[in-house]
Inverse folding.
C-alpha cells in the first residue's frame, strides 16, 4: 500500500470514529417525556404538567423554543444553569414546547399565539395566563419575573 | 385571464425537455445524428417556455396579480419594484422555476455548442436536459401558478384579492435580492461537471473513448466559475444575516448555512483534485468523481433548506417540499457516488503507482490536504444528519450546537493549515526545510494551545459533565491558530516568489498571483473567523420615553451600566409603510378588486341624497361615498375608510359606506382608523465610548403588524480594528439599544474579496497561459 492509500484508509477510520463519538456525545434535549433545556427537566405534555400543577398548587412556566433559535441556546447555556434562576424555577411546574414539533401542546401554542421562539408564558395551575416574556430577557429580568409571580401565588 | 397559462407553458417545457433528453439518449446509444433537428428544436422550445413562464410570473408580481396564490402569498402593494422583481424566488415553487430556467440555459448551451463533440457528448447533453426535464415535470405538479380559489377553501371563483399577504419581512433586503440569482447560477453551472463525470464513468464501463480529457479545460473553467459564484453567494448570505438577523452574526451554523458549506467544501476539494489531475494525471477516478458529486450536494443543500426535516431560521417555505427534489437528490447521489465507486472497485488495478512512494512527499501532503477538506465536509454534513437519524431511530432529540461544528472543525483546520504550508515549502524543492518547519510549527501550535492571556482566548467554556473531547479542544487557546496560519502565509508567499523567479511569461506570473491571492485570502479568513466571535462584546441599555426625543434641543442621554458606553437619542419617528395616502385606492383601483372594507381617495365631484343617505361621487367616477349625517363637500379631496357595496348600476358601481371619524381631507386624513402594514420606529442615535463618539446614525425597528414579525436596520460603523454594531428595538415608548463590537469583522470581507479576486485572476490568466 502506498502512503496515500494508508492515509485514505486512516481517514475513513477517523471519520467513522468521529461520527460515532459525536453522535453519542451530543446532549439529549428531548426524549419525548421530558425536554432537557439547560439540564433542567421540563414536561412535554401539557395535561401532565397541569395535573401536577393543580396537585401541588404551583404556577406553570411554559417555554416555547426551537432547535435553531440562538436566544434559546443562550437560555440553555446561561440562564437555566444559574443557581438563583434554578431555585426560582423550582417554584414552577415546567413545560417546554418545541414550536416546530409541539405534539400534544399544539392547542396551547394556538391559545398562547406563540409564533416565534423564545417565549415564556406564566400561567396559573388552571391555565390562565398571568404574564409573558416575549423574546430574550437578560438573566436579571427573567429572575425578577419568575420571583414576582411565585410571590403573587 | 386564463388561470393556468403559466402551468400550461411549464407543461410545454416539460414535454419538450423530456423529448430532447430521450432523443439525445437514443442518439448516444445508437450513435446517430438522425434527430438532430428535432433535438435542437425541442431544446430551444423548452428553454423559451421556461423563460416565458418565469417572465410571466415576474409580470404577475410586478402588476400585483393576486389571483395567483403564489403571488398573493409572497407580495403586496406596498413593496417597491425591486422586491416585486425578486418575489418570484421568494418561496419554493418560484425558486425552483428560476433554478430550472437558469439550468435550461446551461443545458441548451451544451446542446447547441459545437464544443461538445465526440462519442460521449450526446450522453452528457442528455443528462443536462434530463435535469431540466426533472425540474419542469416537478413544476407541473408543484406549479407557482395555482389560482387562489384552488389553494384556499371558501374563496369564490373570480375573486380578486385587494392586496397580497406580503413578502417574508426578512427577505425585504437588497442582499437577499441578489443572493438567490447568484446561488442558482452557481447551482445551474454545476450540472456540467456532473454530466461530464457520469459520462466519463459510463464511457469507461462501456470501453469507449472518454471525452473527459478533451473537456478537462472547460470542466476546470466551469468549476472555477461555480466556485466564484458559490463563494459570493455564501458571502452575500453572511452579509444579509449580519445586517438583518442581527443576533445571528455572520455565521451561526444554521442548517442552511451548514448545508451550503458542504458543496462549497466539496467544490474546493474537487478543484484541488482536478488541478492535480490536469498537471500530473493523479486522481483519475477521484477528480471526475468529486467534480460530479458537487451537483448532488447542492440538491442536498436545497432539501435541507426547503424540507421540514431540517428546521432552520431560513425555512422560508412552509409546508415542506414535494418528492421531486428529494428523489432528485437520491438519484443524483446514487449515480454520482455509485458509478465511480463501482469503477474503482471493479475495474482499477493496483493504481500503477510505485509502492516506495515516500511518506513526506508533495503528493502525500497534497492528498492529506484534500482529505482535510473531506473531513470538514463530513463534520458539516454529519452535524446536519445525525440528529435526524437519531431522532428517527430512537425518538430522542439531541442538540447539535455551534460547539459541535466549531470544535470538530478546528483541529482539522489547524492540520489543514500545517499541510498547506508544508506543501508550499515542498513545492520549492526544500524538503529538509519543510520537515524542520513542519515539526517546529506543530510544536509551537501545541504550546500555543495552552497560552491564553485571558479567558476570552479559550475556544469555549465547558462544563465538567461535557464529553472529554469537547473539554480538551474547547479548552484550547485560539492562539494555537496563529503558528500554522503564519507558516501557511509565509510558505505561500515564499512559493510564489520561487515560482515566478526567472519566468518572463506574464500570464504565468498572473496565474501564480491568482493562486497566491486565493491562499492568502483563505488564511486571513480563517484567522478573522477564529477571532471575531471570541472577542466580540455586547452591551445593552433601555432608554425610557424615546417618543419625547427631538422635542427638546438636548438629546435623551442614557449611560450603560458598565459606564463604558453612553447613548444619545436625538430624535424618534414612527413611519407608517405604506402611508395612509399611499394605501388609499383611487375609484378605478377600488373597482378592480374585491374587498369588503377599503380605503378610498378622490375629489368629491357631486353630492346628493339617496333613500335618506348622503352620498358623494368621487372623481366623476361610478364610485360613491355614502353615510348618514356625513358632511360631504363639493370640490374637497378626501380619504375615507368604509364598507364596500357593489352595485349593478353602471353609474353607481360601488358605494363605500363611511362615517365622520373614518373620513378626512387629504391634508388631515383619518390616521387613527388606519392600520399600516409596517410601522418603522426610527431613532437617530449617537453612541459614545468613554466620551468618544464611536457610532452615529439612524437605527430602525420595523414592526410587521399583520405577521407579528420584526426586522431591524442597524448602524454598522466599520474600522480596521473591527465593527461597532448598534441595534435598537422599540416597544411602547422604550427603546432597547444594544451595542456590539466585532473585532476583525472587515477582514472577513477583505479575505473573501481576495479569494474571489484570486480565482478570477487565476481563471483569466490560466486561459491565456494555456493559449
Amino acid at each position: 500500500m502506498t502512503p496515500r492509500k494508508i492515509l485514505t484508509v486512516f481517514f475513513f477510520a477517523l471519520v467513522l470514529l468521529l461520527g460515532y463519538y459525536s453522535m453519542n456525545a451530543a446532549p439529549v434535549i428531548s426524549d419525548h417525556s421530558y425536554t432537557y433545556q439547560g439540564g433542567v427537566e421540563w414536561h412535554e405534555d401539557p395535561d401532565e404538567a397541569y395535573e401536577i400543577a393543580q396537585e401541588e398548587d404551583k404556577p406553570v412556566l411554559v417555554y416555547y423554543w426551537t432547535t435553531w433559535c440562538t436566544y434559546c441556546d443562550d437560555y440553555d447555556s446561561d440562564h437555566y444553569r444559574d443557581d438563583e434562576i434554578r431555585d426560582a424555577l423550582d417554584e414552577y411546574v415546567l413545560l417546554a414546547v418545541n414550536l416546530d414539533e409541539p405534539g400534544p401542546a399544539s392547542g396551547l401554542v394556538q391559545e398562547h399565539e406563540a409564533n416565534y421562539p423564545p417565549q415564556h408564558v406564566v400561567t396559573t395551575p388552571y391555565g390562565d395566563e398571568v404574564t409573558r416574556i416575549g423574546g430574550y430577557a437578560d438573566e436579571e429580568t427573567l429572575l425578577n419575573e419568575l420571583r414576582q409571580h411565585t410571590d403573587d401565588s | 385571464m386564463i388561470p393556468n397559462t403559466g402551468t400550461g407553458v411549464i407543461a410545454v417545457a416539460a414535454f419538450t425537455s423530456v423529448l430532447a433528453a430521450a432523443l439525445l439518449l437514443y442518439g448516444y446509444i445508437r450513435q446517430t445524428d438522425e434527430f438532430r433537428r428535432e433535438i435542437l428544436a425541442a431544446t430551444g422550445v423548452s428553454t423559451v417556455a421556461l423563460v416565458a413562464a418565469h417572465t410571466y410570473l415576474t409580470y404577475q408580481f410586478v402588476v400585483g396579480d393576486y389571483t395567483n396564490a403564489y403571488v398573493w402569498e409572497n407580495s403586496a402593494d406596498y413593496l417597491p419594484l425591486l422586491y416585486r422583481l425578486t418575489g418570484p424566488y421568494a418561496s419554493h415553487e418560484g425558486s425552483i422555476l428560476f433554478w430550472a430556467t437558469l439550468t435550461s440555459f446551461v443545458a441548451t448551451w451544451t446542446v447547441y455548442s459545437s464544443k461538445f463533440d465526440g462519442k460521449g457528448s450526446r450522453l452528457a447533453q442528455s443528462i443536462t436536459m434530463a435535469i431540466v426535464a426533472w425540474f419542469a415535470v416537478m413544476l407541473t405538479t408543484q406549479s407557482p401558478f395555482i389560482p387562489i380559489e384552488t389553494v384556499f377553501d371558501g374563496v369564490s371563483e373570480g375573486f380578486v384579492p385587494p392586496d397580497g399577504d406580503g413578502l417574508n419581512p426578512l427577505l425585504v433586503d437588497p442582499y437577499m435580492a441578489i443572493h438567490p440569482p447568484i446561488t442558482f447560477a452557481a447551482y445551474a453551472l454545476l450540472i456540467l461537471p456532473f454530466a461530464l463525470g457520469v459520462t466519463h464513468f459510463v464511457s469507461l464501463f462501456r470501453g469507449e473513448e472518454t471525452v473527459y480529457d478533451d473537456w478537462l479545460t472547460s470542466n476546470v473553467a466551469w468549476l472555477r466559475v461555480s466556485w466564484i459564484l458559490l463563494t459570493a453567494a455564501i458571502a452575500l448570505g453572511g452579509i444579509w444575516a449580519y445586517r438583518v438577523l442581527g443576533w445571528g452574526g455572520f455565521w451561526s451554523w444554521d442548517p442552511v448555512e451548514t448545508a451550503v458549506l458542504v458543496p462549497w467544501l466539496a467544490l474546493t476539494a474537487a478543484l484541488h483534485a482536478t488541478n492535480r489531475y490536469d498537471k500530473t494525471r493523479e486522481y483519475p477516478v477521484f477528480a471526475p468523481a468529486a467534480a460530479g458529486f458537487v451537483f448532488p450536494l447542492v440538491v442536498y443543500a436545497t432539501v435541507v433548506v426547503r424540507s421540514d426535516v431540517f428546521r432552520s431560521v431560513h425555512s422560508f417555505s412552509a409546508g415542506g417540499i414535494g418528492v421531486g427534489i428529494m428523489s432528485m437528490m437520491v438519484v443524483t447521489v446514487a449515480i454520482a457516488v455509485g458509478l465511480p465507486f463501482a469503477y474503482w472497485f471493479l475495474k482499477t488495478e493496483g493504481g500503477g503507482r510505485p509502492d516506495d512512494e515516500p511518506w513526506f512527499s508533495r503528493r502525500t501532503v497534497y492528498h492529506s490536504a484534500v482529505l482535510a477538506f473531506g473531513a470538514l465536509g463530513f463534520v458539516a454534513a454529519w452535524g446536519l444528519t445525525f440528529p435526524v437519524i437519531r431522532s428517527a431511530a430512537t425518538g430522542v432529540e439531541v442538540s447539535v450546537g455551534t460547539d459541535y461544528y466549531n470544535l470538530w472543525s478546528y483541529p482539522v483546520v489547524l492540520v489543514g493549515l500545517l499541510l498547506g504550508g508544508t506543501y508550499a515549502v515542498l513545492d520549492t524543492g526544500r524538503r529538509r526545510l519543510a520537515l524542520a518547519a513542519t515539526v517546529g510549527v506543530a510544536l509551537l501550535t501545541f504550546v500555543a494551545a495552552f497560552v491564553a492571556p485571558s479567558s476570552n482566548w479559550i475556544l469555549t467554556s465547558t462544563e465538567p459533565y461535557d464529553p472529554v473531547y469537547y473539554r480538551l479542544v474547547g479548552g484550547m487557546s485560539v492562539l494555537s491558530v496563529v503558528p500554522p496560519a503564519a507558516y501557511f502565509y509565509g510558505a505561500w508567499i515564499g512559493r510564489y516568489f520561487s515560482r515566478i523567479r526567472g519566468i518572463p511569461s506574464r500570464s504565468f506570473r498572473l496565474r501564480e498571483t491568482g493562486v497566491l491571492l486565493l491562499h492568502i485570502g483563505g488564511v486571513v479568513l480563517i484567522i478573522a473567523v477564529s477571532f471575531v466571535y471570541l472577542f466580540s462584546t455586547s452591551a445593552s441599555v433601555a432608554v425610557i420615553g424615546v417618543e419625547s426625543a427631538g422635542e427638546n434641543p438636548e438629546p435623551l442621554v442614557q449611560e450603560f451600566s458598565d459606564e463604558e458606553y453612553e447613548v444619545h437619542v436625538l430624535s424618534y419617528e414612527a413611519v407608517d409603510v405604506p402611508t395612509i395616502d399611499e394605501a388609499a385606492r383611487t375609484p378605478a383601483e377600488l373597482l378592480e378588486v374585491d374587498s369588503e372594507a377599503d380605503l378610498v381617495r378622490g375629489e368629491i365631484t357631486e353630492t346628493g341624497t339617496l333613500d335618506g343617505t348622503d352620498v358623494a361621487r368621487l372623481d366623476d367616477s361610478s364610485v360613491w361615498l355614502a353615510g348618514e349625517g356625513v358632511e360631504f363637500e363639493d370640490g374637497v379631496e378626501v380619504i375615507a375608510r368604509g364598507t364596500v357595496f357593489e352595485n349593478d348600476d353602471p353609474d353607481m358601481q360601488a358605494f363605500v359606506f363611511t362615517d365622520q371619524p373614518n373620513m378626512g381631507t387629504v391634508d388631515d386624513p383619518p390616521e387613527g382608523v388606519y392600520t399600516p402594514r409596517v410601522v418603522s420606529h426610527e431613532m437617530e442615535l449617537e453612541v459614545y465610548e468613554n466620551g468618544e463618539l464611536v457610532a452615529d446614525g439612524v437605527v430602525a425597528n420595523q414592526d410587521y403588524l399583520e405577521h407579528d414579525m420584526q426586522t431591524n436596520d442597524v448602524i454598522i460603523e466599520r474600522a480596521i480594528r473591527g465593527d461597532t454594531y448598534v441595534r435598537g428595538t422599540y416597544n411602547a415608548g422604550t427603546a432597547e439599544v444594544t451595542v456590539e463590537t466585532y473585532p476583525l469583522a472587515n477582514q472577513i470581507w477583505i479575505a473573501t474579496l481576495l479569494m474571489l479576486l484570486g480565482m478570477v485572476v487565476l481563471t483569466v490568466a490560466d486561459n491565456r497561459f494555456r493559449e
User: Anything to note?
Assistant: The two ends of chain A are 74 Å apart (CA to CA). The longest helix of chain A spans residues 3-25.
